[in-house]
Write a structure and sequence with these properties.
Blueprint lengths: L4 E7 L6 E7 L7 H12 L4 H20 L9 H13 L18 H20 L5 H5 L2 E5 L17 E5 L14 H6 L1
Antiparallel strand pairs: 1-2, 3-4
Length: about 190
């Protein structure tokens, strides 16, 4: 994939402060909305590493949108679903030019992390008027909580048993944390 946007570390000439930005590789212009989002992370006291990683993920999202001719600020449900699938099915670039190796792919957990950054960015954009409200509405869906944590008050008539969860997440189970809900329903 041709890179139109890249995450870059910038250093302020005034005070030497390091910041992460997303820049256009052709014109060296900063992507204003992505940089505002990264500044928002900074102002919330997030780690510089979080800012660095999110900058790379936003650049990846913006490159995907450019390559697939999608307006970054108003992707459809199918465009976001396509991004999610593209993340796990597209081989990563080779680490070295010398030794041809087997193609490497992103894991579903990594795809979930990228989608989290994209979701946060689009929600931030909705708050600032860059992203239409219907687009922000695509990012989560209601889920009924069958099993509640100990001490959780579900309200009168179960009014708080419903939570908003991400609409774009792979079901990933870590070793040792298999899904027990299937075995309970079978018993």
């Amino acid at each position: 994939m041709e890179q139109t946007y890249v995450a870059e570390r910038s250093i302020s000439p005034a005070n030497g402060a390091e910041r992460w930005v997303v820049a256009d590789t052709r014109t060296y212009d900063l992507h204003a909305e992505a940089c505002a989002f990264l500044a928002g992370l900074r102002s919330k006291g997030r780690s510089p590493n979080t800012e660095r990683v999110y900058a790379g993920r936003l650049a990846l999202y913006l490159n995907y949108c450019t390559q697939h001719r999608i307006e970054w600020s108003c992707p459809s449900f199918m465009a976001l679903s396509g991004l999610q699938q593209w993340l796990v099915t597209t081989p990563l670039p080779a680490r070295s030019r010398r030794t041809p190796a087997a193609p490497r792919y992103r894991s579903q957990g990594t795809a979930n992390a990228v989608m989290t950054a994209v979701t946060d960015f689009l929600r931030f954009g909705a708050l600032h008027g860059w992203v239409p409200a219907p687009t922000a509405g695509l990012l989560s869906e209601p889920k009924f909580l069958r099993f509640l944590p100990a001490g959780y008050d579900d309200g009168e008539r179960g009014q708080w048993r419903q939570a908003q969860v991400s609409a774009f997440r792979f079901q990933v189970s870590e070793p040792g944390y298999e899904d027990l809900s299937r075995s309970r329903s079978a018993a």
